[in-house]
Amino acid sequence: MTPASGRRWLRPRERPLTETFNALFAPASVAVVGASDNPNKVGGRPVHYMRTFGYTGEVFPVNPARDTIQGYRAYPDLGAIGKTPDAVVIAVSGDATLEQVRQCGAAGVKAAVIMASGFAETGTAGRERQQELVSVANASGMRLVGPNAQGTANFASGAVLNFSTMFMEVAPKDGPIAIISQSGAASVMPYALLRQAGYGVRYLVATGNDADLDACAMAAAVAEDPEVRLILVYLESISDPAQLARAADVARARGASIVAIKAGNSRRGAQAAASHTGALVGNDAAIDAFLARHGIWRAGDIGELVRAVPLYLQGRAPGQGRTVVMSHSGAVGVMAADLAEQQALPLTDLQPATLRELGTILPEFGTASNPLDMTAALLGKGDMFPRVLHALAADPQADMVMVGIPVAGPGYDVEALARDAAAFSGHYGKPLVASAPQQTVREVFARHGVPAFVTEADAIAALAQYAAHHQLNAVALTSPRLEPCPLDGRGMQDEARSLSLLAEAGVPVVPYRFCASVDEAVTAFSALGGVPVVVKGCAAAVPHKSEHGLVHLRLTDAAGVAHAAQDCFDKLQRLGVASPRVVVATMVKGRHEFALGVSIDPVFGPLVMIGEGGTLLELRKDIVTLLAPFSADDVKAACARLRLAPLFEGYRDIPALDLEALASAAVALGNWALRHRTALKSVDINPLMVMAAGEGVSAVDAVVELQGA
């Protein structure tokens, strides 16, 4: 059953919520409270749009000052209608909104769109008024979109409960795209770009303050529509990660994609977001990790949000993203190669057989490699282009193709070029895009279904995004449901307890002993094999030991251990530690110092940080972040993004580092943090000594902090 017929389509997995979404997207009747006869007013636009865009249900304008509104009978209040509408648009002032919500709830309305502003986006008092709206609505089983919402729209059913001016200027058309946004402007900007490019949009939802039904829930709702292939999302906060994850899972299961902008990440952007939609800005590293974890591509701006749309809608498999660049201009090839490297888009190394065949097709002064230069000979040899494409089709490492057409005119058979490009892409299922500064050229390619871009930069960026997103989707996982486990203790743990907890988690730790006296320290030295040891003062209240002279290194005899232990006991007592202890641990020398850490994001859960360790960690900031749970392969892929990544393969006289052991330790730490996410606050392992490949890793210093004082 399709929304175009006006019939209900959402699956009854959650009956009450399903009814709510059906009431918004395919309602049998809609009331507009505060309706206006003027289609250019907020209360007039939904009425005008439903009449204009083919809505076949009943429309009930509510306005006590008029008998008819835009050709519909008007009613003085909701009760005068004589029946309960499925959905209500409330287009009155903020002060009058609460009473209308009460009336809707009492009448049994399923869903209402609140357009008034003056709520959470204004501060604490507004947030309290907003919460009252939600409480009153939910008490009767009604759900709200907004307040401060531009509204919802289903252009397949004509149910446009939305006041945007954009639809006056840019006529809607049904299509396989949904746009979900907290912001009204950020919903219609991509809409305008898509419509002007000829693409249809089925759903457009601007949720405003996300007080009740938020953008995440709306994304999950439209993901259920089997005809939606691409969901574009604009967020200033992620208030319901579970619903957004569900949207991604549902979409991915049927081959649809989600591309999202999460704005408000800079300091000033965060301030603007708070005043705009009342958003609470999350940890940006957590947001990155969460979106990647669920196969959602994070776009940086509106241009990137819509740039690769034609590739998503075609749905051709990009393989490993290995790309061939071809043009009749050497300069285009050079620039495209530079751009591909900047975008981390791999240009394929063509197979010898492919190169030999190309050599028989191209003129002697052409370039049978990648980038491939067909030269101006393309003008006089009409069969060159399809023959080149045929040669590339046989190459197993040519996954995608970018065709640059910097100039065309008399002598260039653009129609044939576009037709051949489309035939190649369609027959072999390989993504192919073109770039051309001339609009007339782009129009011909677009008419044949070939994505066409103004510049090489846009074409390369679109391919890179599409291929990388495809790979992201391939490794996205469904979040496991794990019950949290408690941990004994509260607050900062001393080093001995911290190392003990990490060992239980499966993270390799340095051999050590926890000692309450000098004699115990000397005994520990012998028990550890008499090898060089370190003696450290151990107290939860003194986490930064080096600053207080509480670290003694490279001790090789019992006398030295005894002296170091006594020094630590004395200093800890002077620092006010009631029961001083020392740790005696084996000296471990790794090939490189790393840091491994955990922070618990209140919204997304445990984040595991991996990066270069030592005292310059915060200065160098060479780190990557993963959202637990994750796999060893995820760790390896993340570590490849570190500036020190070449060390994992070996560098000059430095042997390759043990990436396998590092990945294993990170996975163990992430799984442990996930199990104990309600009890854990943070973990700081610095340094984690990473040995040569095959020799393992070892945590030599750690601080675990639990919740509570």
UniProtKB/TrEMBL annotation:
UniProt keyword annotation of Lyase present: no
Cited InterPro entries: ATP_grasp_subdomain_1 (IPR013815), CoA-bd (IPR003781), NAD(P)-bd_dom_sf (IPR036291), Succ_CoA_lig_flav_dom (IPR032875), Succinyl-CoA_synth-like (IPR016102)
The keyword Manganese is annotated on this UniProt entry: no
Ranges for domain CoA-binding: 24-119
GO MF annotation, one: ATP binding
Keywords: Plasmid
Matches recorded under PANTHER family: BLL6376 PROTEIN, COA BINDING DOMAIN CONTAINING PROTEIN
The protein, known as: CoA-binding protein
Organism: Cupriavidus oxalaticus
Source lineage: Bacteria, Pseudomonadati, Pseudomonadota, Betaproteobacteria, Burkholderiales
